[in-house]
């Protein structure tokens, strides 16, 4: 063996006798080629055979918006296909007439947008047709941080060559990647832009193709399924000209071919790729907010690090650029001049091998450090460390480029703070495994840093007692430190004050100005509760205390020991905050959308920010909460102006005002009325409506979403809180943004919620009252403009269900037992399996069906620990009915993934033929499956739930089985 230095790395080469040109066989004509030059449609043409290969894409058959084609952009030459990271994949039959004994060469141009984490140790596949278990076939892809890899199977071995780590496929630029198998040299070689970046020795035998596998472009042949819904190990970015050729490249030929490619381009240079994520992808989505801050694509969690600098507001946010699911955490970035109209900027922070956060850049904050501009403090995730979390900083390129958009950030390689084992904290020690979410500010020359954590007792490495959550305080004279630990700011005793949880996430400490902006000496401390195990209150609430911050002792002294809930609606979470240039304390939040993983996958986005709110101290010592004054700047046409009239007359005039993008402001004197209700997103016939009500006797304000949507997969329910009238009046402000609803009551409380109507006519308003002679002093309604561009009207609604049919008896198990169903065999199904549990105790929510007929949410959970658990088996059968209506059957299914032994099926009664069936996906959260059985209308059928599986995941769950039954 000899070695050569390639890109700073030592790469071994096999020493073999010089092969003749005949033996070496340079690459010949392509056996398969995809140029992606199509301008429309959901196919990619393979030019050698002329085959039109399907391009899977989430919006080919969209659920919540009009259908749209896969995204195409300008390529290196012609067009290129944009792979969105979770749904775009080309499926082909194979590489054509390819004889692996003659050598194999794969070429492709790629411009990555983001790198995947490397889930389950698998690469992001660019192009592959392989069976890793059988060690056959080939894969060209990317490992973590863009490292290029090529795998080739020989039956007994799956050989991988990795490119030099410092020669990755760079984000935001076109890279030509070539991989080759040279049988004469018994070698795999990788080339980047014509230059050798890695080699590997192969066995002295011929490779074996995986001809039984589909050739996939953009997704791994054995991709990991996340949350039962999302395929991992997928590519995100542009791709152009995938070519498969027989024969092997050598170094001179690789350099020559690349030079010829460049010479053939206009201007002899590679164009800059257009990787901008365009919001038009979601045009027509009936639920996507239009005037709230949200990413251009995919998943976000809490916005954080709001900061003002040189006339611009910046906001950052937790972001997974590869899909609408949690993971691979980056920092997204947007900029505004008014905290309302936002412009998307490049991703600010991304996991990097040489950073504090190779496994994730988690939440944090920002503060301006003089002339060098804002400094970002973030939580760095590093799974190699015993405690996995520490804080780091990033600085902008502003001192060098003067760009006040702050588009470029650099993470420092050294951590700022980290929690050693045994760090003293109040009654115990800091919970070192939970050390995150720095909140930082500077005051009188001292930098303060709060880090969310918990207080525990340890027995060695084992936690023996949890005392409660806390925020640990550090101080320094400069952002880089050194930082001095000052102890816990405050903490909650779980035994007496359990609401703030075992750990505080996202602690925020802000001064509370008075109603006119004057200093009060008081602060507000906000926290997001976290529990180690599943807790029904997790990620639903924000708690706060009003009190005094002792700067000398670095302690917070609350006015009352018990915290209060900030928002009534369980959708306002993840607070972050800052002080504006005019002295206001402003909070940003994440408005969790409470949708299932399936709904996220179908919609292509998850979550959005709440409207920024100003907090203040009222004269009575209570908290004042209002949307920022700038929110009025989003108002467009006034749809109604009603003054000094009765509720009845106001309601009559509201018939002329409707919409799903509204700002509603009302002042009402109850005058003896017991209840006042404003209905929004209401159909004329009342089939869908959301109610906001105030009860003057109980002094209670609430939202009732029980009729907010006909979709059984939408979360509903009632949420409420106590609110006093304001000088005998009800003052109400409602911001309605498609699925987003924020209500502000009497300037003291907010209620944030989500609604997902299915009908086009669910845009009406209605005002009603019970008792008394209430007076509407003011009622104004405005249509709202968009935060990014002109809002696009929703354009996709659910078709109505057939009305001339009956339902399958006890189709949603609303009776609380198996009435209408028959246990055919076994012990796994019984009345005890019908439950209203919303979670399974070791993970998260089932998201069972919620209908008007079954508001309790009964469903069939196939796991019964008192009847054998996963090891129990059996068969359950519904009543036999005649299929009618449109013949479309749908149901919710979850549980184990075993289509042969674990499934729910529609069976023809006459001959026992299974017409359609579905299994789970190794997840407890339900997903809806739909069977088009229109060809069997008139047949006698039944639904059968089969569990013949044992061991782990040996159970299946079923709910809301909708069968259109022909009426007798």
Automatic annotation (TrEMBL):
Kindly state which keywords UniProt assigns to this record, in alphabetical order: Disulfide bond, Glycosidase, Hydrolase, Signal
Q: Which GO molecular function, any one, fits this protein according to its record?
A: beta-fructofuranosidase activity
> What Pfam families does the annotation carry?
Glyco_hydro_32C, Glyco_hydro_32N, Laminin_G_3
Return the EC number.
3.2.1.26
Q: Where is the LamG-like jellyroll fold domain?
A: 102-255
Q: Which GO terms describe its biological process?
A: carbohydrate metabolic process
SUPFAM superfamilies tied to this protein: Arabinanase/levansucrase/invertase, Concanavalin A-like lectins/glucanases
- Similarity comment: family membership: Belongs to the glycosyl hydrolase 32 family.
- What is the protein name for this chain? beta-fructofuranosidase
**What's the source species for this entry?**
Streptomyces dysideae
């Amino acid at each position: 063996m000899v070695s050569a230095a390639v890109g700073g790395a030592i790469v071994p080469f096999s020493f073999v006798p010089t092969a003749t040109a005949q033996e070496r066989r340079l690459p010949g004509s392509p056996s398969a080629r995809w140029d992606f030059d199509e301008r429309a449609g959901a196919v990619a043409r393979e030019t050698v055979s002329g085959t039109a290969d399907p391009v899977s894409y989430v919006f080919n058959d969209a659920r919540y918006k009009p259908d749209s084609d896969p995204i195409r952009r300008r390529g290196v030459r012609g067009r290129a296909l944009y792979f969105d990271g979770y749904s775009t994949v080309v499926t082909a039959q194979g590489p054509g007439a390819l004889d692996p004994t003659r050598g194999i060469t794969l070429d492709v141009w790629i411009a990555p947008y983001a790198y995947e984490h490397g889930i389950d140790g698998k690469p992001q596949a660019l192009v592959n047709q392989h069976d890793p278990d059988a060690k056959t076939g080939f894969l060209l892809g990317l490992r973590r941080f863009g490292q290029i890899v090529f795998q080739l199977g020989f039956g007994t071995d799956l050989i991988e060559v990795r490119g030099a780590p410092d020669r990755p496929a760079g984000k935001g630029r076109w890279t030509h990647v070539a991989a080759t198998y040279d049988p004469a040299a018994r070698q795999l070689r990788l080339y980047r832009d014509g230059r050798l970046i890695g080699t590997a020795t192969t066995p002295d035998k011929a490779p074996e193709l995986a001809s039984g596998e589909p050739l996939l472009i953009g997704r791994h042949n054995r991709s990991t399924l996340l949350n039962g819904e999302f395929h991992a190990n997928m590519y995100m970015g542009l791709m152009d000209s995938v070519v498969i050729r027989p024969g092997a490249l050598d170094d001179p030929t690789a350099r020559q071919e690349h030079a010829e490619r460049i010479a053939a381009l206009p201007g002899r240079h590679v164009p800059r790729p257009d990787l901008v994520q365009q919001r038009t992808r979601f045009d027509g989505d009936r639920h996507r907010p239009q005037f709230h801050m949200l990413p251009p694509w995919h998943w976000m969690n809490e916005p954080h690090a709001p900061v003002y600098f040189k006339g611009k507001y910046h906001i950052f946010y937790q972001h997974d650029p590869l899909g609408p699911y949690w993971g691979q955490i980056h920092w997204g970035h947007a900029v505004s001049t008014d905290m309302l109209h936002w412009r998307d900027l490049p991703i600010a922070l991304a996991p990097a091998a040489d950073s504090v956060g190779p496994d994730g850049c988690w939440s944090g904050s920002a503060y301006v450090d003089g002339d060098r501009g804002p400094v970002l403090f973030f939580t760095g995730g590093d799974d190699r460390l015993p405690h996995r979390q520490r804080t780091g900083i990033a600085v902008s390129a502003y001192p060098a480029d003067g760009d006040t958009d702050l588009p470029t950030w650099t993470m420092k390689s050294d951590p700022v703070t980290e929690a050693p084992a045994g760090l003293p904290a109040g009654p115990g020690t800091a919970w070192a495994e939970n050390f995150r979410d720095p909140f930082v500010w500077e005051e009188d020359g001292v930098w303060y840093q709060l880090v969310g954590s918990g207080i525990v007792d340890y027995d060695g490495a084992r936690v023996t007692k949890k005392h409660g959550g806390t925020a640990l305080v550090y101080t320094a004279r400069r952002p880089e430190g050194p930082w001095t630990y000052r102890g816990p700011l405050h903490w909650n005793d779980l035994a007496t004050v359990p609401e703030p949880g075992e750990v505080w996430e996202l602690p925020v400490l802000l001064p509370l100005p008075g109603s006119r902006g004057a200093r009060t000496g008081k602060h507000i401390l906000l926290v997001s509760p976290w529990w180690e195990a599943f807790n029904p209150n997790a990620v639903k609430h924000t708690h706060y205390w009003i009190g005094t911050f002792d700067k000398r002792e670095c302690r917070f002294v609350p006015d009352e020991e018990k915290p209060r809930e900030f928002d009534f609606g369980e959708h306002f979470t993840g607070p972050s905050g800052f002080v504006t240039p005019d002295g206001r304390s402003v909070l940003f939040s994440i408005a969790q959308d409470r949708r299932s993983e399936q709904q996220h996958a179908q919609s292509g986005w998850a979550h959005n920010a709440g409207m920024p709110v100003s907090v203040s101290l009222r004269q009575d010592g209570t908290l004042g909460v209002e949307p920022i004054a700038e929110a009025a700047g989003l108002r467009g046409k006034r749809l109604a102006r009603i003054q000094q009239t009765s509720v009845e007359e106001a309601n009559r005039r509201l018939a002329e005002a409707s919409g799903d993008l509204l700002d509603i402001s009302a002042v009402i004197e109850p005058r003896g009325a017991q209840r006042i209700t404003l209905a929004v997103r209401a159909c004329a016939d009342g089939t869908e409506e959301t109610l906001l009500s105030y009860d003057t006797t109980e002094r209670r304000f609430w939202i009732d979403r029980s009729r907010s949507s006909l979709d059984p997969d939408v979360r509903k329910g009632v949420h409420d809180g106590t609110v006093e009238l304001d000088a005998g009046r009800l003052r109400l402000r409602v911001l309605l943004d498609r699925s987003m609803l924020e209500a502000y009551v009497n300037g003291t409380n907010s209620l944030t919620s989500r609604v997902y109507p299915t009908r086009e006519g669910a845009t009406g308003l209605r005002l009603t009252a019970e008792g008394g002679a209430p007076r509407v002093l003011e009622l104004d309604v405005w249509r709202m403009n968009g935060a990014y561009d002109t809002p696009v009207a929703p354009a996709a609604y659910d078709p109505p269900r057939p009305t001339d049919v009956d339902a399958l008896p006890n189709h949603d198990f609303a009776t609380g037992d198996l009435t209408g169903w028959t246990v055919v065999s076994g012990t796994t199904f019984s009345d005890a399996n019908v439950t209203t549990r919303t979670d399974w105790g070791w993970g998260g929510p089932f998201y069972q069906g919620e209908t008007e007929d079954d508001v309790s949410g009964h469903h069939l959970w196939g796991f019964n620990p008192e009847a054998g658990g996963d090891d129990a088996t059996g068969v359950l059968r519904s009543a036999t009915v005649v299929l009618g209506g449109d013949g479309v059957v749908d149901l919710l299914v979850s549980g184990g993934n075993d289509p042969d032994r674990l499934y729910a099926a529609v069976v023809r009664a006459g001959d026992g033929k299974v017409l359609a069936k579905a299994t789970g996906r190794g997840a407890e959260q339900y997903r809806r499956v739909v069977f088009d059985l229109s060809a069997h209308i008139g047949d006698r059928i039944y639904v059968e739930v089969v569990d013949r599986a044992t061991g782990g995941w040996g159970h299946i769950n079923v709910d809301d089985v909708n069968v259109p039954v022909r009426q007798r």
